[in-house]
């Protein structure tokens, strides 16, 4: 189990708006020196001489023309004069093993790498990741509860932030802040937020055991789903299917288009569900619980088979609560998970067979995980003792950078739509934005072109069910 400190916050009207902080100073990128060894001043051994005529048989020697003999002698004399070495007139080239490089110099092995590995090396050497936050926002009453999920960044560049019983939307493009709603009862609070993939609707879990669906464009609550028996701490979307997990260990699937929204309900965890993530393809769901287990569930079969009767794999290697979950965007069956205070490990899994393929001891509580496809990296948010974010290189799980600034554990994380910035929310009641990656212009143009083609194709087709039926 993972310890937590939770409370039901009190609030004052109009006191929750996060304020923007200051930017960090401009960074200076250090250019590494390149060492090119000089080989002209080495001794006679490294000049590479070889005997080619000393052991020739008389027959071979007789067959050599006088002109060839004269040319060899002249070449030997020229080499001796150029290197300042006294040579036998018959010694021209002599190959020897190269002497070991002196300490502090580059070896030939480092200088002459294959072109592909050299490119990777260059990227890692020249890349600079700012170790301080680009922006800091105040977040009074951001709850210090390991099991909740209170921050999410939409595809439309809106950041949803739950502060106690009040939900705010921060427009990252303009900097505008909007209060979407406030809980009716003083003792109630928001326990989870999650945007639908297209960014139009926001799902909100509450301590009152319900899930609310909001149309943020008109600031209107469209539906209230009251099927849970306890607070809803985690939410995950798979197209029009909303999956929710509660404190009792129950997982529910809802079709938000249908009047009878409940599709299936399972209780695979014996304690609170604190992590839910659908795979990018939507064919598998990962759930993590306070019972230290990680479960892999089958996706919904549109042919009518449904979700199945239970998990495909039950993974028990973690020794603390499993909240941090992230599916790899470029390897469909790779799942990353992180354990709480008693575990502290990041583990990578092959979701097809449920086997662990890699792990690293981070030395601190793992509260969140995010992938970056462009750089093939993973970033983790941590609690005690450092309260830091750490960037890891995949698949080696080698540390690339450590980002510090929070003074309490980092409980909530999300990534910007362009996948360059990470937002972190901490128990120190601040929200920080970190510029971890640069935009891949080529990938962005390709994505935009693909979206335009899809948009042009969709004009000639009927509207999808989500648009025609709407959220009710």
Describe the 3D structure.
The strands form eight sheets. The chain has a four-stranded antiparallel β-sheet with strand order 3-30-29-28, with no helix packed on it. The protein has two domains: 45-99, no CATH class; 135-454, 7 Propeller (Methylamine Dehydrogenase, Chain H). The protein has helices at 58-62, 66-83, 108-111, 115-126, 441-458, 465-469, and strands at residues 49-51, 91-94, 135-138, 151-153, 158-163, 166-171, 177-182, 190-195, 201-206, 211-215, 220-225, 232-238, 241-246, 251-255, 262-266, 273-278, 284-289, 294-298, 313-315, 322-327, 334-339, 345-350, 355-361, 366-372, 377-382, 389-393, 398-403, 410-415, 421-426, 430-435. The protein starts with 48 loop residues before the first strand and ends with a helix. It is mainly beta. A hairpin with a 6-residue loop joins strand 14 (251-255) and strand 15 (262-266).
Say what the CATH topology of the largest domain is: Methylamine Dehydrogenase, Chain H
Overall 3D form? elongated
Q: How many domains, in number, for the residues?
A: 2
CATH class category label of the largest domain: Mainly Beta
- The side-by-side strand order for the widest beta sheet comes to 3-30-29-28
Number of helix segments?
6
Largest sheet: 4 strands, antiparallel
Structural class: mainly beta
List keywords for this structure.
mainly beta, 30 strands, 472 residues, elongated
What order do the helices and strands come in, and which of them pair?
Elements: E1 49-51, H1 58-62, H2 66-83, E2 91-94, H3 108-111, H4 115-126, E3 135-138, E4 151-153, E5 158-163, E6 166-171, E7 177-182, E8 190-195, E9 201-206, E10 211-215, E11 220-225, E12 232-238, E13 241-246, E14 251-255, E15 262-266, E16 273-278, E17 284-289, E18 294-298, E19 313-315, E20 322-327, E21 334-339, E22 345-350, E23 355-361, E24 366-372, E25 377-382, E26 389-393, E27 398-403, E28 410-415, E29 421-426, E30 430-435, H5 441-458, H6 465-469
Antiparallel strand pairs: 1-2, 3-30, 4-5, 5-6, 6-7, 8-9, 9-10, 10-11, 12-13, 13-14, 14-15, 16-17, 17-18, 18-19, 20-21, 21-22, 22-23, 24-25, 25-26, 26-27, 28-29, 29-30
């Amino acid at each position: 189990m993972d310890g937590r400190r939770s409370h039901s916050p009190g609030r004052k009207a109009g006191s929750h708006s996060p304020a923007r902080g200051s930017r960090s100073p401009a960074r200076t990128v250090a250019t590494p020196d390149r060492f090119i060894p000089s080989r002209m001043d080495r001794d006679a051994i490294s000049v590479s001489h070889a005997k080619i005529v000393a052991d020739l048989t008389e027959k071979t020697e007789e067959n050599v023309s006088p002109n060839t003999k004269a040319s060899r002698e002249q070449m030997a004399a020229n080499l001796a004069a150029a290197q300042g070495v006294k040579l036998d007139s018959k010694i021209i080239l002599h190959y020897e093993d190269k002497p070991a490089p002196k300490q502090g110099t580059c070896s030939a092995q480092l200088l002459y790498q294959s072109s592909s590995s050299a490119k990777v090396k260059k990227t890692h050497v020249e890349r600079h990741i700012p170790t301080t936050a680009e922006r800091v926002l105040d977040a009074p009453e951001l709850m210090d509860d390991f099991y909740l999920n209170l921050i999410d960044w939409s595809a439309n560049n809106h950041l949803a932030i739950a502060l106690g019983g009040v939900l705010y939307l921060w427009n990252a493009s303009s900097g505008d802040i909007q209060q979407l709603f406030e809980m009716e009862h003083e003792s109630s609070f928001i326990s989870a937020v999650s945007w639908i993939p297209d960014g139009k609707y926001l799902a909100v879990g509450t301590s009152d055991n319900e899930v609310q669906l909001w149309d943020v464009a008109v600031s209107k609550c469209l539906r209230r789903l009251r099927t849970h028996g306890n607070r809803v701490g985690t939410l995950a979307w798979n197209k029009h299917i909303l999956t929710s997990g509660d404190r009792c260990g129950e997982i529910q699937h809802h079709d938000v288009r249908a009047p009878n929204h409940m599709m299936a309900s399972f209780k695979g965890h014996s304690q609170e569900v604190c992590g839910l993530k659908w795979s990018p393809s939507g064919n598998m769901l990962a759930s993590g619980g306070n019972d230290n287990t990680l479960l892999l569930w089958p996706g919904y079969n549109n042919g009518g088979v449904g979700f199945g009767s239970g998990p495909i794999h039950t993974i028990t290697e973690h020794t603390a609560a499993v909240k941090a979950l992230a599916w790899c965007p470029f390897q469909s069956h790779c799942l990353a998970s992180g354990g709480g205070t008693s575990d502290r490990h990041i583990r990578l899994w092959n979701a097809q067979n449920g086997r662990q393929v890699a792990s690293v001891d981070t030395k601190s509580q793992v509260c969140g995980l995010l992938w970056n496809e462009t750089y093939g990296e993973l970033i983790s948010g941590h609690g005690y003792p450092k309260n830091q974010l750490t960037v890891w290189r995949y698949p080696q799980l080698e540390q690339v950078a450590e980002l510090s600034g929070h003074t309490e554990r980092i409980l909530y994380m999300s990534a910007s739509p362009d996948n360059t910035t990470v937002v972190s929310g901490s128990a120190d009641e601040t929200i920080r934005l970190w510029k971890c990656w640069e935009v891949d212009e080529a990938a962005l143009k390709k994505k935009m072109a693909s979206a335009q083609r899809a948009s042009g194709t969709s004009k000639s087709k009927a509207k999808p069910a989500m648009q025609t039926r709407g959220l009710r």
